[in-house]
Every structure is written in structure tokens, then in C-alpha cells.
Write a structure and sequence with these properties.
This protein has three helices and five strands; from the N terminus they run E-E-E-H-H-E-E-H. The strands form two sheets. Strands 1-3-2 form a three-stranded antiparallel beta sheet, with no helix packed on it. The protein has a two-stranded antiparallel ribbon with strand order 4-5. The protein is flat. It has 111 residues and is an alpha+beta fold. Strand 4 and strand 5 form a beta hairpin.
Length: 111
């Protein structure tokens, strides 16, 4: 958890899992910041679902932050080795499965 403020961490039960361990060896997770999300929703036009908010934010995002496959802000970014392009992990996986291991960014076969 190097670099994550302790105020943003929450201790979790061992049964729940959790991918992070703090400096004392306890399993932790990062707290959701509902207050910041609510503020962002208010600034960006109020109600709606989180997916609607993502669409609003994506439309205003710079091109280098958008996935070339789904055109939203990249989520769980992956770097495709053949062309060094980046996209959402789920988008790349879906496209590779659909197109029989053909790169969805540069069309190279056998990726």
C-alpha cells in the first residue's frame, strides 16, 4: 500500500480476501470515496447511473485516455505487444476471442 494514505484504507476480514496488505501485515482494501463521486455527479449534471456518468466523462476526455474499441475512458488498461497500443482489458479480450486471435488494433494474426 505504498503511497496510499492510511485514511483511504479499510481493514478487511481474512475471509473476505482483499488484495492489499498494509505495513502492519493486515489485509486492507481501498475505501470508496462516495463523497467525491457525489460531488462529481453534481458538477457533471446530477442524477443518472454510474455508467451514464462514465459516458459523460468519456465524451469530454482527451483522446489518449479513450479506448479505441469502446470509446470510453480506458478501464484496466492493457498494452498489446504487437503494436504497443492500449485499450481496456475486457475490450481486447473480447475482440481477440471474436476474431480468432487477430489484434483488434493493428490486425496482426496470431497475437
Amino acid at each position: 500500500t505504498l503511497g496510499v494514505p492510511a485514511t483511504m484504507l479499510e481493514i478487511v476480514d481474512d475471509q473476505k480476501g482483499g488484495g492489499l496488505v498494509d505495513s502492519l501485515g493486515r489485509r486492507v482494501t481501498i475505501k470508496s470515496n462516495k463523497q467525491a463521486f457525489t460531488k462529481l455527479k453534481d458538477v457533471r449534471g446530477g442524477g443518472g447511473t454510474s455508467s451514464q456518468l462514465l459516458e459523460q466523462l468519456s465524451s469530454a476526455a482527451p483522446a489518449h485516455l479513450k479506448c479505441p474499441l469502446c470509446f470510453n475512458i480506458v478501464q484496466d488498461a492493457v498494452l498489446v505487444p504487437c503494436c504497443q497500443g492500449s485499450a481496456c482489458d475486457s475490450c481486447v479480450r473480447d475482440e481477440l476471442a471474436s476474431y480468432r486471435m487477430k489484434c483488434p488494433l493493428c490486425s496482426k494474426q496470431g497475437v
